[in-house]
Write a structure and sequence with these properties.
Length: 334
């Protein structure tokens, strides 16, 4: 035989594994205030509360989702039309609830009408989504002028359910960011986690509503826009992202403790590859598909020795057809 042909046929089957059980309930991240009433602003105008979180809330969501938990960003107002806010909101996939609190308007919860407050629509949304927790992102301020005294950071949590979540975010901030090398200066003042049962007629009555549904909730107020050290730090893009990721780290640590994901199922063993064997026969014996040799292996009948014009693929599912050119077919095969 002039040539030896080595043929290999392989089939690959991809199998993906998923976590057992249902998809976890989501984490709701709410951007505080709204573009028409944007909350606190630094004395130099560099930092605006709503605009800051419109840009950086997505960093919180990314980290939560990377840990395997669904995450939704919400805002009580309509979507902004001015740039760059419109782009920030679109890139972050913000769910706009279209019920702004114009003139600090307060209204009752749909689910618990005895609770009244501004921003109640965000709490109601978290209830409807059966959120694992709700985190309201804000920036704090103690006046419109620069403060020379480093402030104590503040994380407010709902009284009956939110303390552990608040402590987890606080620990992440103290460990990774506040007064750490390369972190945000805070004069060693730390952060206070403050459980609070706000009266039903108060502006932040949404905390009671979430407590009534056993949904842990916190209001992040640990960064002050009238503190120069804080403003200088978060005015840097990389630092602002670090702040958001640090908050996310605390959320994820709490989730892993209180809502651990089931272990991933082991990958199923790959199905055995089909084994095909090739036999070469003299002409006028068993035909094979005409396209088998030229299409799959780039050879033609003329490449075979004269006495070996036909081959058969054992295991082939389709009827065989001669590999010989039509004009070379014996009469019986035409």
């Amino acid at each position: 035989m002039r040539r030896l042909f080595h043929f290999l046929c392989a089939a690959f089957i991809g199998i993906t594994s998923a976590h057992a059980g249902a998809v976890p309930r989501p984490v709701v991240i709410d951007i505080g205030h709204q573009y028409t009433a944007s909350g606190a602003e630094s004395p130099d105008g560099k930092i605006n509360e709503y605009a800051f979180w419109a840009q950086y809330a997505i960093e919180v969501r990314k980290e939560v989702e990377a840990a395997g938990y669904p995450c939704i960003i919400t805002n009580r107002s309509e979507a902004p039309t001015k740039e760059p806010l419109a782009t920030y909101n679109k890139e972050s996939g913000v769910v706009h609830l279209n019920k702004p609190d114009k003139n600090a308007k307060r209204y009752p919860s749909t689910h618990h009408p005895e609770h009244i407050g501004a921003g109640m629509i965000s709490a109601d949304y978290a209830i409807e989504k059966r959120a694992l927790c709700a985190v309201f992102l804000h920036l704090n301020s103690v006046g419109s002028k620069w403060s020379t005294t480093p402030p104590t950071g503040l994380i407010i949590c709902n009284k009956n359910n939110g303390n552990a979540l608040g402590e987890a975010v606080c620990e992440a901030m103290l460990t990774d960011l506040l007064d750490q090398p390369g972190g945000m200066p805070n004069g060693k003042k730390g952060i206070k986690v403050m459980p609070r049962h706000i009266g039903s007629q108060s502006g932040a009555g949404w905390m009671n509503t979430l407590d009534a549904e056993n949904i842990p909730a916190i209001i992040f107020e640990a960064v002050y826009v009238n503190n120069r050290g804080h403003v200088d730090f978060i005015s840097n893009d990389a630092n602002a992202r670090k702040l958001a990721r640090t908050i996310a780290k605390g959320i994820v640590n709490w989730l892993k403790t209180n809502h651990p994901l089931p272990p991933a199922e082991p990958e199923a063993p790959a199905a055995p590859l089909p084994i095909y064997t090739m036999e070469v026969f003299p002409a006028d014996t068993v035909p094979v598909p005409r396209s088998f040799l030229p299409d799959m292996y780039g050879v033609s009948a003329s490449d075979l020795p004269d006495m070996y014009k036909q081959v058969i693929l054992k295991g082939a599912e389709t009827p065989a057809e001669s590999v010989l050119p039509e004009e070379e077919q014996p009469d019986a095969a035409k």
